[in-house]
Amino acid sequence: HTICADVTGVQTCALPIFPIALLAAALAVTGCSAATSDPGTVEAVESPAAGTVALLPAEQFAAASEQPGVVLLDVRTPEEFADGHIEGALNVDLNSPDFTAQMADLDPVITYAVYCRSGNRSATATSYMLQEGFAPPYELAGGIVAWESAGLPVT
Question: Is the Cβ–Cβ distance between 92 and 119 less than 8 Å?
């Protein structure tokens, strides 16, 4: 049974505590999912929801970028790209005068995994992508700096 009270003209309802405690105990014992995973692997990353950017830490970004059909997009300058980038990435310089023209050449249906040096330019690029109707992208939180700090390789 639900317990309701009228508090200053607003009806507030709550479930009795015992069933909630029982549910919490069951979840604590069984977990939210019956799936098991190898602790040495990174689980698959879900696609970003429509109209959103999935901001991911380095390990999850790596897993997302390895999913079939996902294209890595580095939005740093060509010089920064030449100094080291994630293998397989395309380079489209956000600060280039022809950035929008280069983006227009990309397939907006494809899912992109976008990064820069620290996360500022990639945030701008992913926002632009959403405005232009691109599929919701992944974004590397902390940029390639975070990627390298996590011990992940650059070429």
Answer: no
Residues with a catalytic annotation lie at 116
Distance CA 84, CA 23 (A): 50
Here the tokens at position 8 are 């200053």
Q: Supply φ then ψ for residue 10, to 5 degrees.
A: -115, 125
29 pLDDT band, cuts 50/70/90, is very low
**Percentage of the chain with pLDDT > 70?**
72
**What does the block give as tokens for 112?**
């992109």
SS3 99: helix
Say which residue the tokens 């991911």 belong to. Answer: 56
Over residues 84-88, the mean pLDDT reads 97
